[in-house]
């Protein structure tokens, strides 16, 4: 009876040692996997940032043409900037705001969105008026060139500083 209990305890102890080693190996394997995936993600992100910085530095060196700050609009015609900064006086800004309200009023009051696919002969006068107001607004906005965004200016400044530091070395 003593031999059976001793054999049982030895077997249990052996299983505990083997399971302990397996648990340690699984933990190490998991840690290596997590660390390697994290390093790969970090490397990809760093590589992307370095490529963008290289493009900015090439733009600064004039080896590439300077892009417009809203070049995304040329690539995607339906792309709209959420905020386009323009330099208006106070009265001009109020004028554009009133014009935008008038256009919105016409569109909302007469529900003009439903007429967007209809031929010109069948369009109501309100729709034609809203079109003319939009055309006038677009012509007026052409006179005021958009200002570059703050992020664009910061990227250009960073490219300038990086290039300046390289010329000193």
What does this structure look like?
By secondary structure, the protein is an all-alpha fold. The protein contains 5 helices and no strands. The protein starts with a helix and ends with a helix.
Features:
mainly alpha; about 0% strand; single chain; about 170 residues; about 70% helix; elongated
SSE layout and pairing:
Elements: H1 2-60, H2 72-75, H3 90-109, H4 125-142, H5 150-168
Helix pairs in contact: 1-5, 3-4
Oligomer: single chain
**Overall shape:** elongated
**Uncertain residue ranges:** 66-70
Question: Structural class of the helices, strands and pairings?
Answer: mainly alpha
Overall average residue pLDDT: 78
Residues in helices, as a percent range: over 70%
Round the Cα radius of gyration to an integer and report it.
33 Å
Number of helices: 5
Main sheet overview: none
SSE string, helix = H, strand = E? HHHHH
Summarize this entry quickly.
This protein is mostly helical and 169 residues long. The protein is built from 5 helices and no strands.
């Amino acid at each position: 009876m003593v031999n059976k209990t001793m054999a049982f305890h030895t077997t249990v102890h052996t299983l505990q040692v083997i399971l302990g080693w397996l648990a340690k190996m699984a933990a190490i394997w998991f840690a290596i996997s997590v660390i390697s995936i994290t390093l790969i993600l970090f490397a990809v992100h760093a590589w992307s940032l370095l490529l963008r910085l290289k493009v900015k530095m090439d733009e600064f060196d004039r080896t590439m043409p300077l892009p417009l700050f809203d070049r995304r609009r040329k690539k995607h015609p339906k792309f709209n900037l959420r905020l386009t900064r323009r330099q208006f006086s106070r009265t001009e800004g109020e004028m554009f705001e009133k014009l935008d309200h008038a256009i919105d009023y016409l569109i909302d009051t007469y529900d003009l969105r439903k007429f967007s696919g209809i031929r010109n002969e069948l369009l109501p006068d309100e729709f034609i008026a809203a079109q003319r107001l939009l055309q006038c607004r677009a012509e007026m906005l052409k006179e005021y060139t958009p200002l570059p965004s703050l992020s664009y200016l910061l990227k250009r400044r960073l490219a300038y500083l990086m290039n300046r530091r390289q010329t000193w070395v």
